[in-house]
Amino acid sequence: MNRAVIHTDHAPAAIGPYSQAVRAGNTVFLSGQIPLVPATGQVLEKLKILEDLGYRWFVATPPFYLPPRSIEDHRRHFSILAESTSMKMIIYNIPACTGAAVPEEVLLEFSSQGISTDCKDSSGDTARFEGLCERGVEAGLGMYMGLKPDFARLKQIGARGCVPVPANVLPGLFAEAWKSPGKEIQARIDRVWDVFVQGTDFLSASVYALSRMGIGSGRPLTGQAPANEFMQQKVDELLREFRVIRGEKRFGSGVSTHILFI
């Protein structure tokens, strides 16, 4: 069978001993890919822009389109990002969106080497999260919960923090729950969660809520549908209860909405 290594200038160059692709007979085997736009390295360019603007941290996930298939793929991907900037990297493990879970070995290794000492986890794998909280102590790894938090439990297992999507809307409430966890404030968190997260839709309600506070348009940037009428009503009720907004009309009604920040 004929075998030929494929090279093109229209894709990012292969790293080390790897090839962009190999043709074997009538089959072409493609290499894995970190998230770069061919010939521009757009992700790395954006990191440079953020660094020039004075940002100190950035969050990185595995590549979306061609997810890593091995520990070495993950190690190579995150190493390139970390080495391209002086900003500190937070690794975000969200396999439901990226199609790949960041290996525990990579997280512990990177933390012990000082490459990335923080990880936000939205995998929903409780055993994995709690295990990393325990094993990460020696390596200096800090774990942050990205899904529905049980604050007392997070404190108990040594998590470093909690950064779920609804916390963008009510950061004070989540900060208070982290600082002083208890049954009463946990009940408030649970009620907020039930309004802002509907099944697998963790984004629409929060995007709408932020628009009611004067931030953004209220339309998700992804293909996800915007918050429906029922969801908007529940969000408005909750925001008024927490004194984040006041007024009975939503945007688009032709009546001005009064915003009250506290």
How would you portray this structure in words?
With 262 residues, the chain is α/β, with parallel strands linked by helices. It has 3 domains: 1-31, no CATH class; 33-163, TIM Barrel (Alpha-Beta Barrel); 165-262, no CATH class. It is 39% helix and 14% strand. It is built from 10 helices and 10 strands. The chain has helices spanning 42-52, 71-83, 95-98, 104-112, 126-139, 151-157, 171-179, 183-196, 204-212, 229-241; strands at residues 3-6, 21-24, 27-30, 57-60, 88-93, 118-121, 142-145, 161-162, 245-246, 258-259. The strands form 3 sheets. A 5-stranded parallel sheet has the order 4-5-6-7-8, with helices on one face. A 3-stranded antiparallel sheet has the order 1-2-3, with no helix packed on it. Helix 6 (151-157) links the parallel strand 7 (142-145) and strand 8 (161-162). Helix 9 packs across helix 10 (229-241). It is globular and about 70 Å long.
- CATH architecture annotation of the largest domain: Alpha-Beta Barrel
Shape: globular
Rg over CA atoms: 22 Å
Named CATH topology of the largest domain: TIM Barrel
**Secondary-structure-derived class:** alpha/beta
Question: How many strands, which pairing sense, and closed or not: the largest β-sheet?
Answer: 5 strands, parallel
- Which ranges are low-confidence, i.e. pLDDT below 50, for 5 or more consecutive residues? 248-262
The helix count comes to 10
Q: Please identify which CATH superfamily of the largest domain we are dealing with.
A: Aldolase class I
Helix content: 25-40%
